[in-house]
Design brief:
The structure is a single chain. The chain is mostly helical. The protein has one domain: ABC transporter involved in vitamin B12 uptake, BtuC. Helices cover 73% and strands 3% of the residues. It contains 15 helices and 4 strands. A hairpin with a 2-residue loop joins strand 3 and strand 4. Helix 1 packs across helix 15.
């Protein structure tokens, strides 16, 4: 299993011989392990030097609010990628969940009457729709054997098309609700504050805490890493692979729906086109955070840091006046560089493991004590 082999490799590097080569491998591996965090610190320092307003409290809160949307998406994407899959439909689920909220808040026409569900019901239904789309993805992958890339690519178009059909291609412009109808309060997700901190940031923390518990403390997390490391071995060990895979796609859909609700709440409007290309931001955050696209290796902490790198980089480029076109080029370069560094780290870990094994073999004969005649 990849997670187990990663820990063994890391241990091997730590136990590498105290030679110049061994110390160099340890240093390089440490730097690569912390690459996303180092990149984040460097970004903050550079943009703080270029703009006096970058490190102000208001700007940091604003940037973190922007990060929260992609961070929640990245958490769901992480769960899928850890199993060796991919979810390209999350951007469309963002738009669909917002449209569902818009329909419900503007009222359901049933039998000549118009029903206005309370806000909590709107949120629950929209989240359920996101999880349901994720369940469809998981079923296509597990029951019908469709490759994750193709399955989620197809659902990307289906979900976007459904959002356009429901809305007729129009935007729901007023989601503020009415006190007389009992459907006010939706704006608290995107604009509300709790203890002076925006609710969206608290939601990011909540989703991250739950995901950390699942991946580090719960059996479900061990199953996810096992499937990503070696699916066949996990199945032989008794892991219900199909069931776990369906659940991770449902988690991804749920996270995407939550991001869609935050966006719709913040803008107090819902557009079926919302969330376009958001799946790329989520994948980028996960990759920059050190997650392997092959599955079995990655952390929630890394995904969060990756989301902060993407968000702080994008906002920083806007503040210093960099062209939108150059922003796209820079973001793509950062993603490619992250993959190259990940490959470099794996090579260093293999070299460290080989050095440790060679040192152990060399020391083995001297450890034997000859038997007296």
């Amino acid at each position: 299993m990849s997670s187990m082999s990663d820990s063994v490799t890391a241990t091997s590097i730590a136990d590498a011989p105290s030679t110049a080569e061994g110390r160099r491998l340890k240093l390089f591996n440490l730097i690569l392990e912390l690459r996303a965090f180092i990149a984040l610190i460097v970004l903050i320092i550079v943009f703080a030097l270029l703009s006096d307003s970058y490190l102000t409290w208001d700007n940091l809160v604003t940037m973190t609010r922007h990060v929260a949307i992609n961070a929640i998406l990245a958490i769901g994407m992480l769960m899928v990628i850890l199993t060796g899959g991919i979810d390209l439909s999350v951007g469309s689920i963002v738009g669909l969940s917002g449209v569902i909220a818009g329909v419900l808040l503007e009222g359901l026409h049933v039998g000549g009457a118009t029903l206005f569900p309370p806000v909590w019901a709107v949120i629950v239904i929209a989240l359920a729709v996101g999880a349901g789309v994720g369940a469809v993805n998981g079923t296509l992958v597990t029951r019908f054997g469709v490759a994750p890339f193709i399955a989620t690519l197809g659902i990307l178009y289906v979900a976007r098309g459904v959002a356009l059909l429901i809305s007729g291609g129009e935007t729901y412009p007023n989601l503020g609700g009415s006190e007389a109808l009992g459907n006010t309060g939706f704006d608290f997700l995107g604009s509300g504050k709790l203890l002076t901190i925006p609710v969206s940031i608290w939601l990011m923390v909540l989703f991250a805490a739950v995901a950390t518990f699942l991946t580090r403390r719960a059996p479900f997390g061990r199953w996810v890493y096992a499937i990503g490391g070696n699916e066949r071995a996990a199945e032989l060990a008794g892991v219900k692979v199909a069931k776990v895979k369906r659940r991770v796609y449902m988690i991804s859909g749920l996270c995407a729906a939550m991001s869609g609700l935050i966006i719709a709440s913040e803008l107090t409007s819902a557009a079926p086109q919302a969330g376009e290309s958001f799946e790329l931001n989520a994948i980028a955050a996960v990759v920059i955070g050190g997650t392997s696209l092959m599955g079995g290796r990655g952390t929630v902490r890394g995904a969060l840091i990756g989301a902060f790198v993407i968000g702080f980089l994008a906002d920083g480029l806007v503040i210093v006046g960099v062209s939108t076109f150059w922003q796209i080029v820079i973001k793509g370069t950062v993603i490619v560089l992250a993959v190259i560094l990940d490959q470099s780290q794996q090579r260093i870990q293999r070299r460290g493991a080989a050095a440790a094994a060679a040192a152990e073999v060399a020391a083995a004969p001297t450890a034997r004590t000859p038997t007296a005649a």
